[in-house]
Amino acid sequence: MACTAEDVARALRAVAAVVKEHREELIRLDREIGDGDHGENLARGFTALVSKLDGDVPALPGGVLRLAATTLISTVGGAAGPLYGTAFLRAATSVGDAATLDAASVAGALQAALEGVVARGKAAVGDKTMVDALTPAVVAAEAASAGGGDVGAVLTAAAEAAEAGATATVPLVARKGRASYLGERSAGHLDPGARSTALVLRSLAGQVLS
Amino acid sequence: MACTAEDVARALRAVAAVVKEHREELIRLDREIGDGDHGENLARGFTALVSKLDGDVPALPGGVLRLAATTLISTVGGAAGPLYGTAFLRAATSVGDAATLDAASVAGALQAALEGVVARGKAAVGDKTMVDALTPAVVAAEAASAGGGDVGAVLTAAAEAAEAGATATVPLVARKGRASYLGERSAGHLDPGARSTALVLRSLAGQVLS
Amino acid sequence: MKKIINDPATVVADALRGMALAHADLLDVEYDPAVIVRADAPVPRKVAVISGGGAGHEPLHGGFVGRGMLDAACPGAVFTSPTPDQVAAAVARTDGGAGALLVVKNYTGDVLNFETAAELAAADGVDVRTVVVDDDVAVKDSLFTAGRRGVGGTVLLEKVVGAAAERGVDLDGCEALARRVVANVRSMGLALTACTVPHAGEPSFTLADDEMELGIGIHGEPGRQRVPVGPADELVPALLDPILEDLPFAGGDRVLLFTNSMGGTPLIELYLAHGIAERLLAERGITVERRLVGPYVTSLEMQGMSLTLLKLDDELVELWDAPVHTPALRWGV
Amino acid sequence: MKKIINDPATVVADALRGMALAHADLLDVEYDPAVIVRADAPVPRKVAVISGGGAGHEPLHGGFVGRGMLDAACPGAVFTSPTPDQVAAAVARTDGGAGALLVVKNYTGDVLNFETAAELAAADGVDVRTVVVDDDVAVKDSLFTAGRRGVGGTVLLEKVVGAAAERGVDLDGCEALARRVVANVRSMGLALTACTVPHAGEPSFTLADDEMELGIGIHGEPGRQRVPVGPADELVPALLDPILEDLPFAGGDRVLLFTNSMGGTPLIELYLAHGIAERLLAERGITVERRLVGPYVTSLEMQGMSLTLLKLDDELVELWDAPVHTPALRWGV
Ligand SMILES: Nc1ncnc2c1ncn2[C@@H]1O[C@H](COP(=O)(O)OP(=O)(O)O)[C@@H](O)[C@H]1O
Ligand SMILES: Nc1ncnc2c1ncn2[C@@H]1O[C@H](COP(=O)(O)OP(=O)(O)O)[C@@H](O)[C@H]1O
Ligand SMILES: [Mg+2]
Ligand SMILES: [Mg+2]
Ligand SMILES: [Mg+2]
Ligand SMILES: [Mg+2]
């Protein structure tokens, strides 16, 4: 099973739906240790992306990912806008002008996305950010791909690892992003960006499998 | 029993103590249908009066009443400042330079005080103001004085009538003062100025009797 | 009650000390009795324009003392009208020989205390006139009540009359102008939350999460009507329509639109409401020629807003545009 | 949540419409992407000074657009940094050929978005420099964290650098001056109440009746420490002492003292706090040569305040005094 541009677009619509569904949850998480806009920011961005996809779906998977990148960069704002935007931009570059994406290219795209997020945000694992979800996701995706899994298996493995990584942010003291201003008081809360990263990966996996 | 300047001063100290004691109650009443400062305003004024009396008590009852008038005018503010001030000023004028006050002169002073309040504030009985307490008080004081009562009896009669008059303001719709802005919503509340008038008269009576 | 204060009993004097330090170039502050005076007072041969009222409405009135506006302001205790000796001291301190105009908001306490002060000043030989501002359309006017309250229109009057006095208009002229402003200005306000007077320690009223008070005054007193909060597109007409009907204002009129925050409503909401009000006026063919947007007549930390409309003519526009240099309003200098 | 708004999703655009109408003489407003531009932009051969950040801090930054201060401001959604296309549009709209200085408050989101914008503008051939303001002493600085936040000092920097740009100082000079301001300005804030972001619908945190947050930022985020509310005589030193120790400021220093309301704290309390701060500084032999008191860097309706101290020299004093004509600050014109 390989993904066409239409498949990627459909998967991104699924992400948009899930983000919208979890908008309040992400707002609440961000209110606890941030400024309460993460759910609103992502919902605004993915809603804008769906409008663009309603207009015209680019021919290649890389084009769809690039459209996601530029749309998120110009509509999300906050820390998540450039970080998610860069992730999609690097993913787009990584898949190049392939007509379809297979398991290896999806795992590679995730790897590229992580590198982009780290390049922009300079966070390391343990800083209580989306990097804590994305890093184990990339490791799991590569393992699944190397083990012969298909796109669905790769994304499912990534989603599971991201969820575990997100949960593991709870006890951490934030060292990057707005939550870091709270110092010790940031401990005991789930990082909103890690949570949204897990949600995005889970909805991608769900869509590809269905 | 006739009152000297010292007696009047002592009576006013008693008033100050009672006003202070009922400060919160008067604030609460004024919060309900006004702006919540009546208790604070009167407490400030009578506290200032006590300081002045601590310095020097004028020789004549009229002088003490005049001191009360000018002190209240320059420290109370709000509607109650000029109204209470005028009341004491007219009372002072009414007793003239008598060395002591008897029942008739006390009743006359109350009458003069009421006339002063009406002249300044232009309120009639039923407008839900201090006039609703002071008017029956004057009537009762004159009856008590005409019936041969002493100063204590005159003030007790005035205080009782004032209390009844104050209570009777509850169902009224205010037509003067800040409460009038509430229209129908002012009904169901005790007028703070009527309540304070009753308190002042009751404490004067209590002091004279004790 | 959470406030940045020391003692409710000294809050006004304590704030005056900070104000004096913050605006030493513009203001002299006296404490006993409390008066905020223009630093260069008295200005010879100029009518002294003086106002005052309870504290808690800042920048009203002290923030409007300075060149081209007020000569002095008399702050009472919070939400309590000042005492006559304050006003008399203000007159004595600012009288430049051309008399004094007292700008009084129509509240029983203010009217009675300024009345007494005017008597005192007149006894000192100063020609004193009083103009009572009563622009609040939320209160039904009647000879048998306390009448309408003075609210937002007061600032506009102080600016316009202050400009006239600065130009040398005499006391008769200033008084007539002030009455013309009163005749042509109307306001109405609403509150989303109550405020807490420091010495009271508790909010002046309580509102449910979906309620607002329509037709509030500026003293934390409840309004005429408690109604559900709607979107801004409903709130703004709820203020504007009664104002327009009252004067009435009509198509072709030129107006100054003053969109005022009661203190706790942030600028983002205020601009939003202002935009709606301008649109509604444009739809009726009323031309907004001047505007003022901000927290100028407040009720401590109360969330809410008021709208004020002043019907303009060329003279009023010119006086509005004239230089002013006060802590809260400044232009042309 | 009670606010004077229609739809949380359109609140920024709706407010911009009102702002555009209120200040048509000073500002041009563009909506897609959202940029507030000085009406006479681009000013030929002048460095464009541009800032931006989440909405909800009004008058920051849009209220400081105008002669002698900012050329453009980019408002993000409430408490959300603007997007790179907004900043790029602002540069394009205001570039007078002398380059652009981007004034960025140090928040991850702001830094990342402005960084991307600077790359876009550089690709268009505009010389763009970025200065990051990080004056909040409540946050411990470290290479391994997001670093200190940019708060009240931003306004002072925008005024001073805006004045320099207006005088024709070139991009190198403006950048160096901006870095000098950053090096000499320190702030700290506290909150008595939280605020409610429109799209969140609930307060960003809750405080008991006797609690305050010490060391808050300006985005409704909780502070470092939750402590009991004391009298103003304790609150003011709780802000001032960490500021003084940090730079450090010392006896003999000349400073600008900026006493800022977070929005919901009324002027009466702010002046009171300002007076205390001036007294404490005088006691240490620090000379307050200039001051700014008011709600200039706010967090919606949050009650609270911040203090900012800028160490002055003759050049900074002169630039502070230079003419400015914006919606929120105006003098000398
Ligand atoms: N430097 C960083 N590197 C990676 N992720 C980060 C960084 N800073 C913040 N984040 C992520 O961004 C999330 C917050 O996003 P959002 O609320 O949209 O932005 P903002 O903090 O500007 O309001 C955090 O929960 C965290 O996961
Ligand atoms: N015109 C009036 N005549 C007589 N009494 C009045 C009048 N207006 C107000 N009052 C009295 O004053 C009281 C309020 O006093 P206070 O709260 O001190 O003044 P303010 O209303 O200015 O805050 C009212 O309860 C009422 O009894
Ligand atoms: Mg956030
Ligand atoms: Mg009262
Ligand atoms: Mg009062
Ligand atoms: Mg944000």
Automatic annotation (TrEMBL), chains A, B:
The keyword Signal appears for this protein: no
Single GO molecular function: kinase activity
Residue ranges that the Swiss-Prot or TrEMBL entry lists as coiled coil: none
Keywords associated with the record: Kinase, Transferase
Domain DhaL, residue spans: 6-206
Protein name according to UniProt: Dihydroxyacetone kinase subunit L
Native species: Saccharothrix yanglingensis
Gene: dhaL
Automatic annotation (TrEMBL), chains C, D:
Assigned keywords, A-Z: Kinase, Transferase
Entry annotated with the keyword Kinase: yes
Domain DhaK: 7-331
Molecular functions (GO terms): kinase activity
Family matches, as InterPro entries: DhaK_1, DhaK_dom, Dihydroxyacetone_Kinase
Keyword Transferase in annotation: yes
Entry's transmembrane regions: none
Name this polypeptide is given: Dihydroxyacetone kinase subunit DhaK
